[in-house]
Each structure stands twice: as C-alpha cells, then as structure tokens.
Amino acid sequence: MQIDDFLREYESKSDEELLRVAHDIDQLTPEARTAIYSELSRRGLKESSALVALAAECRVELPPVVKTLSIRLSSTNEYLVEVTRIYRKHFWLFLIVTVPTVVASSELILYGRNQIQQVKFEALSRTRTIDNHSLYSIYAIFFATYLASWLLTSATYGATASVLGQLKRGEQPGFIRSFVELRSKPWNFLKTSILLFAFMSFGLGLSNFLVGLLYIMAFRLMLSGLGWVLSFVLGFGAMLVVSRFALAIPAVLLDGCSVQKALFLSDELTEGKWSYLAILLSKSIIGGFVVGLLAFRVPRLIWNEIPLSGLYFMRGAFLIGLTLVEPFMFIGFSLMYVTARKSNSLQEGQTFAALSTYPRQFV
Q1: Cα separation of 314 and 301, whole Å?
Q2: From CA 124, how far away is CA 116, in angstroms rounded?
C-alpha cells in the first residue's frame, strides 16, 4: 500500500482508533508511520513541539524545517526574530527572486505615469480641458498599470512562499524552483491575485471617499494636519483588513486550495493575528517611505540642480532599497501560513517514522 492509501484509511478512523493504532507504531511499515503521523498532526492530536522534544531525548538531529515548524506564534518578538533569521540565512536567494519583479514593476508604473501625462497634455492642447474620453483613458491606464504591477509583486510573493514551502519539506530552495509552483497552478494564482487587487482597490477607494467627505464637512479642520493623519489611518486600516486574505496566495500554491477555500482559510489562519499583520504592513510601508525619502530627498540637498547622473543614482538607490525592504513582509506572511497550517505534514511524518522506536513516549 502507498502513503495515499494509508491516509485515506486513517482519515476514516476516530481519534481513539487512530491513537490505538499509533500505540503499536513499531509494527507498521514506514509508509504507514508517515501517514499516521500526518493524520495525527492534521487533527491536532500531536504538535510539532512534541516531535522536537522527542528528537532531543533520542539524540536525533531533525531537519531545520521541522525546527522552524515547531515555532509557535506566541509572541510577536519570536515571530519577527524568526522572519529576520530566515531572511538573513537566504538573503541572496530572496534578493535574486525580488530584483526582476521590482525593476519591472517600477518601470511599468513609470511608463504608466508618462502615458497619463501625455494624455493630459494632448487633451489640454486641444480643448484646454480634460474631456470625458481623456479622463476614461487616464483611469484605464492607471488601473491597468497598477494591476500589472500588482501581479508582478504577487509573483514575488508567490515565489517567496514557494521558498518557505521548500524549507518546510526539507528541500534546498532555489531560484528556478521557487517559480515552478506558479507555473503549476497559474489560473488559481492569477484569480487569487486579481481578487486581492480588487479587495485592496475597494478598501483604499472607500477610505479615500471617507476622507473626501470629511474634507467637505470640516475643511479647515482637515487642513490643520488632521486630514493627513486620518488619510493614513483609514488607508492603513483598509490595508490591514485586506491583509487578512493575504495567506490565500501560499494556500493556493503550497496546498493546491481552490480560490474560495484559500480565501476562507486565510481568514481563519489570521484570526486574532492583528498585531502580526500590522507589524508586517508597518515595516513595509515605513521601509518604503524611508527608502523613497533617502533616494529622492537627500540628493536634492546635495545638488541644487540634479544632473543626469544624479537622477540615475536616485532611481538606482530607490530600486535597491525597495528590493531589500520588500521580502520581509512576504516572508512574514508565508511563515505565518506554514506555521499555522497543520495539514500536508508529510515531512514531519517522515521524521516521526525515523523516531518510531519510541512510540509509547510519543503517544
């Protein structure tokens, strides 16, 4: 019998029956041992921490992935330390994964802005006003540009999630392999990314609408600086709510979930994790703001009239800084998924099978 056959058999058993079988684990084949531990983990009967403790007692070295999976999201400090550790350990891989999409996304946005300026210029040169046709063209260019940029960024996120998935399986991650998951599930990945873009557009649009209403009702008060604060708070709140569905990308790529199931699963896994989501978003937003400030404001303090070489320096510095900042949030979301998700734990099952000479201590 294959592992899949054992999995189907153990899924039909009750918890008591499953534990009774696990009690005699030494009499099972390696495939059965792997399957039974997978089912135990899926039901939450045994946690990864128990496996790590057992390994220490047996003096067996576990793969790094199992140690990573044993991390509990009990505190934001431990979580951020682990995200940073993974980022540093695989720094060059994440850098190579991020560079192409950051450059392409930035070029797309720059091209879109130039096209919008050209449409405005042509409309004003004809009628000295922006007619409806030109206005629709501007909106179409704007959304098309940012949708393409969003999809490229989602590809980086998907590749990052794939790297975490490879680590989860105890494999050596690589650049090409990190994009293989996207090629194997292109349509679900594309539909999920577009849905998230729609959620984010709606949330930010709603926050801008509310800010506009506040300006109408209290114009002078909003001009005092309160307007900027409220704009940031409402915009950040919208992004925070939408981030509850951010784990749908790794759910689709790593576990092959449907789009609907991935969205519900993401909402379930991020329940009560507002502080984690807020920290990841804050680091990304603040990091991007600081990068933009250093790249575009500091050179203006050095040169009164920025030369062409200075413009290239500013753009290059911005792209480098954004490349360094962007992976942190994606690693954080991906790590949150692989640590919270209890299914598809065959890697742990293989490790447990190797330790099956101590079944009674485990059960």
Answers
A1: 12
A2: 12
